[in-house]
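Board notes, transcribed. Complex of a protein with thiamine diphosphate.
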Amino acid sequence: MTAMTETLTGAQILCRALLEEGVEVLFGYPGGAIMPFYHALPEFPELRHVLVRHEQAAAHAADGYARATGRAGVCIATSGPGATNLVTGLATAHMDNTPVVAITGQVARAMMGNDAFQETDIIGITQPITKHSRLVEDVEEIEDAVREAFQVAQEGRPGPVLLDIPKDVQNQRGVWKGSGAAGQEGGNSTPAQISRGTAPPPGCPAASLNEAVRLIAAAERPLIMAGHGVVLSGAYAELRALAERTGIPVITTLLGISGFPEAHPLHLGMPGMHGEVHVNRAIQQSDLIIGLGLRFDDRVTGNLAGFARGAKLLHVELDPSEIGKNVPAAVALIGDVREVLCSLLASVAPRNSDAWRREIAGFVRPRDESFRAGLSPQAILDEIGKANDGFCTIVSDVGQHQMWVAKLFRYQRPNSHITSGGLGTMGFAVPAAMGVALARPGEPVWAISGDGGFQMNMQEIATMVQEGIPVKMAVFNNGYLGMVRQWQQFFHGRRYSATPIWSPDYVRLAEAYGIPGRRVESFGQLESAVGEAVAEPGPVLLEFMIEQEANVFPMIPPGGSLSEPIEGEAATPLVPA
Ligand SMILES: Cc1ncc(C[n+]2csc(CCOP(=O)(O)OP(=O)(O)O)c2C)c(N)n1
C-alpha cells in the first residue's frame, strides 16, 4: 500500500489521526455539522464510540478517562448547541489541568459568519477555557491539527484543546500523510511514563537546589503540601521517599488526595476551608512549606493575609506563572514534580521531624465517634472501603458529600480520588466515572453524588446501560442542596432559600433503566446493600438516606484565616438574616 498518495476524506483522515495518537475511546453525540465524521467512524472499529445523553457528559467522561490514564480523553460534538454543551466540561478540565481533546463540527466554510443554522463561534467561546483552540480550515491541516492538539493537551501543564472542523472540510478529500506517532513508543504516553535522564530540569539551577536542600535540613517545623501536580506527574514513590527520609508530615490538597498513602503515619490530611483543625494549625505554625504541584488557591489558603505567616515556601511547580501568584516563594524549583523530586532526593540528607510531629499530634482533636453512628457518611464510606478492600476509585461530585469523600475515605490506590476541584462542577461525578470505568476495566469505580448533583447528569445511566459501563452510583440524599444549605445556616440566618430539593424515587428510576437500585435507610441495611452493589457486574444505583441537616466541620468562614475554624453547630451566624 502506498500510504503517501492515499486520498481520503477529511473525516477519514481525522479518524486515522486519532488512531495514530493511540485513542481507543471517544465520547460524543452526533448532529448535522459532524455527520461526515460519524459517517466515517464505522470504518474504524478500533475507535470505540460511547454515545452519551448530553454533550456535557461527553466532556466530563473524557476528563475522567484522562485523569485515570494520564492520556488525553476525547469528546465529540456537533456545532451550535452540541458544542456549547461541552463548555462546562472543558472549563472543568481547564481548571484542573486535564488533557482533553474536543472535536466539534462547524457549519461549512461558505456559511460561516452568516448566522447559519447551528452556527456558534465555539473558538471564541472556549478560548479562555482551553489551552488552545483551532479552526481547521482545510483538509490538509487535519493531521497536523490533531497531532498538535494531543501534544498541547498533554505536554507541560495539561489542559483541554478544541478543534473546530467545518463540515465541508470533513468532506474534502486530501492525502493521508501518516507521518505521525503511529507505532512510536510513547506516542500518547503520560509525562510519568516518559523515561527521564538524571539531569535536573532546566528550571532547577544548582543554586536553587542547594538552597532547597539547606532549607529542608534547617527547618524545625516543615510540612509537605502535595497538590495535583504529584498525581499528574505520578510522583508517588518520590514523594514517599522524601517524606520518609526526612520525617516531614504530608498534607494532601483536594486534588492531591491519593498522591500519598492515606494510612501512612506521616499523612496528616486535607488543608483549607474544610481541612482538619490540626492540619490547618500545623500550617499556621510551620516554618517551611514544601509545596509540590499546587497553586495555593483560596480554598486551600483561606485569607491570604493570615496564611502561614511564619513559613518560608519552597515551591515545586511546573508552571512558572504560579510562582508567587498567591504565596511568595523563598525558593522556586520549576519543573515536573517527579523530575524535581528526583533531583532533590539526590541531595536531601536524612533527618527526622519527631519533635514537630509530636507537637502536631497535640493539635489533633479527639474524634467525635457519634459521627460514625447510624447511617453517617463515615459509616457509608467505611462500608464502601471494606467491600472493595479499599481498592477502588471514587469519583465525587460537588458539595458536602465531596468533602466527606475527600476526608473520610481511606484511599489505597494511587490516583483513586477524582473530583472537580477548581471549577467545582456539580454533575461531574456520574459522567466522569464512566470515563474512569472505561479507563480501568475490571476495577471498581464509584460515583458519589448528592441528590442535587446527581439530578444534573443522571441521564447518563442510559449510556452506562447501552455501553455496559459498570459504575456503582451512590446518592447521598439529604433532601437539600446541602453545602449551600450549610452556608445559609451559618451565614444567612438559616434562610433556606431554594435549597430544599425534591428527588424522584431512585429505586424506581433504576428500575426504569433496568438496573438494580436500592434505598438504604438504616445502618442495618448498609452492609448487604453495598455488598450486593459490589457483586453486581453492571451499573447499580444506591440511595443513602442521610441526616438532612448534617454539616461538614470544621469550616473556615468566608474571608477567615486558617486559624479561625468553626468546629460545631454553636457558632454564631456572621450575617444576620
Ligand atoms: C453546576 C453547579 N451549580 C451550582 C453549584 C453551587 N453549589 C455548590 S455545592 C451545591 C449543593 C450541592 O448539593 P447536593 O448535590 O445535593 O450535594 P450535598 O451538598 O447535599 O452533598 C451547590 C448548589 C455548583 N457547584 N455547580
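The radius of gyration is 24 Å. The longest helix spans residues 55-69.
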